[in-house]
Amino acid sequence: MARSDQIYVMRPLVGINGVYQHHGIDYGDGTVIHYRKMGNDAQVERTSLETFSWGQPIYPVYHAEVDADDVVIARAESRLGEGQYDLFFNNCEHFATWCKTGRRESAQLASFGLDFDQINGPINGPIFRRWAERTSQNATPEQALILFQKAMGDIALAYQSTLTAQQTAQQEIDTWQKVAQRALTQQREDLARAALQRKLTAQRQVNSLTQQLHDLITLELSLQRNRDIAERRLE
């Protein structure tokens, strides 16, 4: 890694390691500028690599086109102290990708169907976008609560579907491991290698689905907080 690189580490959730990516910009001197979360708050800060990584391996992010190093660093520095974290529109990946390319994008959200500008996904992305935009503009509290209720129902359905898929993929991991072990006892290394490759594919699916479950949990918590605000406005 080098100065102005976009980097990330895998962060744990509820004791599960490697659930989601946390992004930042390498400052080139052993520090990183990133959205640092402290409890329920988050702020763009410049911290040590150790604080950023939580002891996990650090990986670079590659883009087809990037801006000059000085431009990337200047963008990151311009937002130091910002405390406007938003899962949908201004998360740590949005921040780091904007610094690196000038585009506010989050591949993690897009991979899960939460790219509101592009995807009409299984959990009704356009409804979430309308909710996020209208509740801060012209929607009445009553209208906001209707949208909240619809969103929460969609999240519950998506979570159950994703959890089932994750459990199925985990079963495949166990099955292909057994197949590989049996093939080795029969001195069929070719079959063992093929089985281990299937196991690896299933493991990648589990990792992806675990990340999606995390995104759903985070999304539900965000909606609950905003629903509580809307309910208080009705009191």
What is the name of the CATH architecture of the largest domain?
Alpha-Beta Complex
Strand content: 15-25%
> What is the CATH topology descriptor of the largest domain?
endopeptidase fold (from Nostoc punctiforme)
The low-pLDDT segments are 116-127, 134-139
Largest sheet report: 5 strands, antiparallel
The CATH class of the largest domain is identified as Alpha Beta
Radius of gyration in whole Å, from Cα?
A: 21 Å
User: Could you give the distance between the termini?
Assistant: 52 Å
User: In CATH, what is the homologous superfamily of the largest domain?
Assistant: endopeptidase domain like (from Nostoc punctiforme)
Q: What is the spatial order of strands in the main beta sheet?
A: 4-3-2-1-5
User: What is the β-strand count?
Assistant: 5
